[in-house]
Amino acid sequence: MQQQTSNGGISSGLQQNGSTADSGGPHANGNMIPESDSDINGVNGETNQNLGPPKVMDKTNQDIVRLIGQHLKTVGLKYVSLNLEMKFLLLEQKYLEYLEEGLVLEALHVLRNELTPLGHNTGRVHQLSAFMMCSGRDELQTRAGWDGKGAVSRAALMDRLQKYLPPSIMLPPRRLHSLLCQAVEMQNQQCTYHVTHTQTSLENVSLLVDHSCSKEQFPCHTIQVLNNHCDEVWYCKFSPDGRKLATGSKDMTVIIWDVDPETLRVTHRKTLEGHTYGVALIAWSPDSSLLIACGPEDCPELWLWSIDPPDYELRATVTQSTDDSLTACAWYPDSRKFVAGGLRGQFYQFDIEGNVSESWEGVRVKCLWCKNDGKTVLAADSHHRIRGYNFDELCDFTILQEDHPLMSFSVNKADRLALLNVANQGVHLWDLQDRCLVRRFQGVTQGHFTIHSCFGGVNQDFIASGSEDTKVYVWHIKRELPIAILTGHSRTVNCVSWNPVYHQMMASVSDDCTVRIWGPRSSSPEKVDSDKT
């Protein structure tokens, strides 16, 4: 284990017959008013053709018209607008069906005498008039984006009309099916141990009982105990593609393990040697081809490894000064650059060759994370904060502040939630967008030793953390109490990693010098294997 020393009103233009004016019409902004009342009172839906010159209103009259429009809308004018939209959709269908049947005169009558007088959606009316030039049925359907006369297009029309009608008149389509799907989805969200890729739907569950996954499918059973390290194991991390596991130890080695997706077991692939300090943190590049190993607090260098089989070679040893402390690092999403820092005030941005491209002075970094936007770097510092840094624009800002030292943190794949291991407090969940504490998880023993927790599961609905009481704790993200407490280690559990692809698999490492692989009971042998290479 490592002990460390101690962030208004809506304007509505009016048109003939009280309908809502088209947004592109000359009266859309309420700046003009007809000369007399007779100009807005059409007979039998026909507009008066003898309009006089419009008046230009002053600001006071414009405000009055806007207030009247707002009042009319609140007392029911909006329903007139909805009726107008429904009438337009019906007449559009009628017009297109006439055209498809070759009844051009009838279609022209609908266009001139029924659609145009509505004064609604003028742009679409112009499009409809152009369809009269179509050479045949196929061209008409293609240009109009229409399925042709028949049940399909009329069903689509009903779906469009449905949103304008209250449920008391017309139920939404497949309403019972929608309600049942919502019920199944709710059961899925409330399932304590839902960790498989199988999607819960009406097709694969019974409606006679509530959906509930068995704990036997959950990764809470020891599959393997790996004894290859000869000293305390400080860190473990699955690669983003889920096919490899890397473990770092006080014995100054990193071991790469291959993951078998079928059995959820691992086999030794390569031991990376040559580090001059113990390995306290490992960072995989997002494309799973590179790996960075960091040392403890007094380590001034990083080791950048290429992990492309069959070659596992040390690509660069990154260091700036023997007085540096480079104990934290994180990759940008493009796998072409990374950031690193430490508690002595160093904070660098490196390219893939290990060259410094930018630096930030005086930031005492404990843990780092690069967001998916490719710009923002989150850093936990010695002032109990997490702050955001942008190396391109050289700006920084505080996101959250805790009352106790932050030992480590991780962020979910949506960049919304952060999981913090806080000294003497345990595991806290923060919302980075709303900048508020969401939940304090109970059970874990957290002092001043560095313990790394993680998100896991298909939708990252689970959280796992090591503990100083030798146990691994697992919580559902919506519950403060653990849903599983895993035993087997004999000393402090320093780190837990959940496989990001094969969600029924976890790994944990401990000061007892072992690595434990956790999986469902079906993958657990009667006698747990203990591998030594």
TrEMBL record:
Residues 83-106 form the CTLH domain. It is found in: Cytoplasm. SUPFAM superfamilies: WD40 repeat-like. GO terms for cellular component: cytoplasm; GID complex. InterPro entries: CTLH_C, WD40/YVTN_repeat-like_dom_sf, WD40_PAC1, WD40_repeat_CS, WD40_repeat_dom_sf, WD40_rpt, WD_repeat-ST_regulator. Keywords: Cytoplasm, Repeat, WD repeat. Residues 1-57 are annotated as: Disordered. The keyword Cytoplasm applies. GO terms for biological process: proteasome-mediated ubiquitin-dependent protein catabolic process. PROSITE patterns: CTLH, WD_REPEATS_1, WD_REPEATS_2, WD_REPEATS_REGION. WD repeats lie at residues 226-267, 272-303, 486-528. Residues 1-22, 39-51 have a biased composition (Polar residues). Pfam families: WD40. It comes from the Eukaryota. This is CTLH domain-containing protein. It comes from Heterotrigona itama.
